Amino acid sequence: MNDDRYTKRTIVKEEVRSAFLPEARSVKIYMPPGYNELMSYPVLYCQDGEDFFNFGRTATTITRLILDEGLEPALVVGVDVDKRVRTDEYSPDGSRFEAYCRFFAEELVPYIEERYPARRERAERVIAGDSLGGTVSLHLALEYPELFNRVLSLSGAFLESTRSRLATESDLSWLELYMLIGLQETAVETSSGTFDFLNENRLTRTMLEAKGTKLVYEEKDGKHIWGFWQKELPGALTRFFG
């Protein structure tokens, strides 16, 4: 990963104003090697954008996969979040959850697609998130199925409120979901208490499979940390863009 070809890339920072959120939201847009405005690209949208770029090394990883392993070039949009209100925005029970989802689907995606050569078919959009970022990504697909049907979840916080929402769906055969969970994630401390994420993901998996979801589910040795997710990100990206 020390090859300087992997670290030579273009990342643009934008401020997206919102009618739904009380402030503009910073986003970073990664352009793949050989980026050409006359071409079109699939898009990876990442919750916790700063973390995906800094701790997940997403830009370096996807550049390496494109250059060395033939991954399809894609744009990466990292959406920043203020950690002080992260739970309010990402949790289905949060006070800003509906506003954030509306911002993401109704303002952010159109903003990107008006300014960058992003493909506009839903199969060309992938939403990714870790922990509660995985939660809000799945809920975005459920609330806006015309926009999103591909979700990448790294140790998603799929608790009872998510399963209650899933229970309202009769057919999820349109949904493509990658779920990764660590075998050591049995006592994850959150702002709402301590949860057995491994069991919560297993329960959610059973419900998703019963409703026909196109599901790739992986349990691996790992804790609820970026050190675990970063190692697994290349395989997850290859599933969607390989």
Automatic annotation (TrEMBL):
Entry-linked InterPro entries: AB_hydrolase_fold, Esterase-like, Mycobacterial_A85_antigen
SUPFAM superfamilies tied to this protein: alpha/beta-Hydrolases (SSF53474)
Lineage: superkingdom: Bacteria
Gene3D superfamilies: alpha/beta hydrolase (3.40.50.1820)
Name of the protein this chain belongs to: Esterase family protein
